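Intended use. Records like the one below are meant for learning the mapping from a protein sequence to its folded structure. Do not use them to infer anything beyond what is encoded.
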Amino acid sequence: MSKGGSTTSTQNIDPQLKAAYLENLGQARSVASALPVRQFADFNPMYMAGEEQVINQSLTPFSGQDINAFMNPYEQDVIDRSLGDIETSRQMADLRDRQAATQAKAFGGSRQGVQASLTNAAALKQAADLSANMRQQGYGQAANLAQYARAQNIQGGQNVMNLGSARQQLLQSQLDALRGIGTEKLGITSAALSGGVPNLGMSTTTPYSRNVGAGALGGALYGSQLFSNPVISAATGLGGGAGAGIGALLGLLG
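Structure written out for the chain above:
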């Protein structure tokens, strides 16, 4: 068996604290209602120009015109001079052959004709090989330069895109900062409201209960031990049984 009850405590709010709380609440509502929609920075002209260059360079097929633009304009002059040197050497060789044929008294003979034919054929082959090699080297260098230029154009477009992106991020940070002014105010107000004013100006009731049976049993045990003491029993004329009954009654009364 148990008995119970309740206790009631009342807290009164400070008028100044209440006014400050209501002011903060009104400010929070005003800041929240005035908070602008978030804006996003557009791609700037620099970024779009770089993007267009990268797309054009990446999608445009590599053609002979690209290579011709890097051909050495003096290549033919170099070839002509080299061929001229070969012709000079051929003429000098032919002259030596004629002189040798004259000394051998074979000038105008078949042997001289064969030697002249061999000298001319060697000169022609040397000229053809030299011209082909020089043109091949020039073409290869021009092709490498054209490919390098294409790669540099793409890289340059990407660099411009990065610069444009950096400017876009700067503009975005400025937009966020402007919008964040209201957000900071709202955060400060929210921090002030987070302390709360819990249950101020309200009444709080706290229930409690007491176990009567346990109290009576404990009182009886204690009374029995107390009055079983010979000195107390002699002084009061009561024994342990009477002490147990008195202790139990006191325990019930709590």
